[in-house]
TrEMBL record:
Keywords: Hydrolase, Membrane, Transmembrane, Transmembrane helix
Protein name: N-acetylmuramoyl-L-alanine amidase
Parts of the chain that traverse the membrane: 6-24, 36-55, 102-128, 275-292
Pfam family, any one: Amidase_3
Length: 561
């Protein structure tokens, strides 16, 4: 669906630019200016939707590992449509029925292939006809019969002349076609033809092609009458007129001719009117503002209340070593009698470090020895890397939303003295079983996700459940931990029901989920809201609400595990 959205933006740009040409610029006799306007705006229409701007948003989150810069996670806002995944054997799969998107894609590719094949066949036919050429004056002359469909025309460096024409007439035709060849007009037509193949559904692609072809003739006619008498030249055009379906070659004269005759005898436009072409710049700016992509970048700042990190690149090795020794001595002296929450506060006081944001850091929690009896929670931010999963109603990828939520959940957990292991700390792809195996040293496992469904279905079924759900795996492989997972899930669900502003599923959902199979610890999957619905998305996109959800999940974890 992203491809169709891109084509829609390109089509909108071509419409804006072409209307400006048709109603304003086409009236002027500045044919060279018109040529570059048409080609330039056609190419620009494909470029503008590919551009992007970055909007930074600062959020407080724990610092990550040395391999990840404590910086930025980009969320692409390309405003695409989301797909509704189903959990079948633990994998996100598209609904079984053939989707409308697949049908449209198949139709698009079929027509595109037909048009592209037709274009190449036409070019091949012309090259085949030109094989018996005569090289003269750096051009390749080909004599053709009066019945040839592309007589008195040119393509690339080939010039096709009707062998039955008188010499004086040939001279004018050759002069005309030489101007086409030297100006490389065939390149304009090839670009326009390829754009037509790509945007075959867009009527403005055909309008661009016809306007480029017509403007070529206006431009060459204006130069030809500087050498030949205008009325004699116009009479020759009328006498040699013929219909043509080959839009990728330049014909000396082809029907219809009314507009061409009008431009041939039109009085040249006032030179000062060239300033009107500058008004095209606001059009470009408007199209950029309307169709450019936006990237929202989360800049994760170090939280003063959660500083168990040290700035590795800011401290000499001796300082790091000294800090480690002080840490170990503090643990050995106090861990036996001090409560876990007080112990963590003491450790924060021991590690003397300046708060530094947006630098490479070492996550101190991952480097320190595990405190005896300290609880370890494994948090799995769903998807990542090439698996972008679904998208929100505004186009934000689920993989980025889950990673942001995981950082917040980690931060809130560490405030409670809970050790946290993240299956991923950056935008990387992990298999479902690899995620589970990364959390084998924890005493509980939580996989974070967001629900979604196709936008068109979301608009038709506004009453579909769009709140928070908790899943456990029902596979037999879950073994003895299945009962504990259900107990864990029920406690989290019970805690989540205390939230206000979003609905929570009444009961625990049971499904076959690969990421939770073969569980060695109590394991659940939390769908934190349906991001295809505007109200639900706005709720979970608010960091305050996400923190509330995370703390309620932790309440359930502390009572259920």
């Amino acid at each position: 669906m992203e491809l169709f959205l891109y084509f829609a933006k390109v089509s909108a740009c071509t419409a804006v630019f072409y209307f400006f040409y048709h109603f304003i610029l086409s009236r002027f006799t500045f044919f060279s200016f018109n040529r570059w306007y048409l080609i330039g705006t056609l190419v620009l229409s494909f470029i503008i939707p590919l551009l992007s701007v970055t909007v930074k948003r600062e959020v407080v989150s724990p610092l990550t590992t040395l391999q990840q810069s404590a910086g930025e996670i980009a969320i692409s806002n390309s405003r695409g449509n989301a797909m509704d995944p189903e959990y079948i054997d633990g994998e996100h799969t598209v609904l079984n029925q053939i989707s409308l998107e697949a049908i449209l894609m198949a139709l698009y590719v079929l027509v595109f292939a037909i048009l592209l094949t037709k274009l190449f066949i036409g070019i091949g036919h012309i090259l085949w006809k030109s094989r018996n050429y005569v090289y003269k004056d750096q051009l390749k002359y080909v004599s053709v019969s009066p019945n040839c469909s592309f007589k008195n025309s040119s393509f690339c460096h080939y010039l096709f002349i009707d062998q039955s024409l008188p010499e004086k007439v040939k001279e004018q035709v050759i002069h005309h076609e030489k101007i086409h060849i030297k100006a490389f007009h065939f390149m304009d037509k090839l670009i326009a033809q390829l754009c037509k193949c790509v945007l075959w559904f867009n009527p403005f692609a055909y309008a661009y092609l016809n306007s480029i072809d017509a403007n070529h003739e206006y431009e060459v006619d204006a130069k030809s009458v500087l050498t030949f008498d205008k009325r004699t030249y116009a009479s020759l055009i009328l006498n040699l007129a013929q219909p043509s379906s080959h839009l990728f070659i330049n014909h000396f004269s082809k029907l219809p001719l009314k507009k061409r005759m009008h431009m041939l005898f039109k009085k040249p436009s006032n030179y000062m009117k060239k300033l009107i072409y500058l008004t095209a710049l606001p059009l470009v700016i408007i199209c950029c503002m309307a169709f450019i992509n936006q990237k929202e970048v989360f800049v994760y700042m170090q939280s003063p209340a959660n500083s168990l990190s040290i700035a590795a690149h800011q401290q000499p090795k001796e300082t790091i070593k000294k800090t480690d020794l002080r840490f170990e001595s503090t643990v050995s002296a106090k861990q036996a009698n001090m409560p876990e929450s007080n112990l963590k506060r003491e450790l924060i006081a021991v590690v003397e470090t300046k708060q530094i944001s947006r630098i490479n850091t070492i996550n101190f929690a991952s480097q320190m020895p595990v405190i005896k009896n300290q609880r370890t929670l494994v948090i799995d931010p769903g998807h990542g890397g090439k698996d972008g999963a679904t998208k929100s109603v505004t186009g934000i990828l689920e993989k980025d939303m889950t990673l942001n939520a995981a950082f917040i959940l980690k931060e809130e957990a560490e405030k409670r003295g809970i050790r946290v292991v993240l299956t991923r700390t950056k935008d990387e792809y992990l298999g479902l079983y690899e995620r589970r195996n990364r959390g084998i040293d924890g005493d509980a496992f939580i996989s974070l996700h967001f629900n979604s469904m196709p936008i068109e279905r979301a608009s038709k079924y506004p009453n579909v459940f769009n709140g928070i759900e908790v899943y456990v795996s029902v596979e037999a492989k879950a073994g003895d931990k299945l009962k504990e997972s259900k107990m864990f899930g029920n406690q989290v669900l019970k805690s989540l029901k205390n939230i206000k502003g979003i609905t929570v599923r009444d009961s625990l959902k049971e499904q076959s989920l690969a990421v939770l199979s073969d569980a060695l610890v109590p394991s659940i999957l939390v769908e934190m809201g349906n991001i295809s619905f505007r109200d639900s998305f706005n709720f979970v996109n608010d960091e305050v609400h996400i923190r509330k959800i995370c703390n309620l999940i932790l309440d359930g974890y502390e009572t259920g595990c």
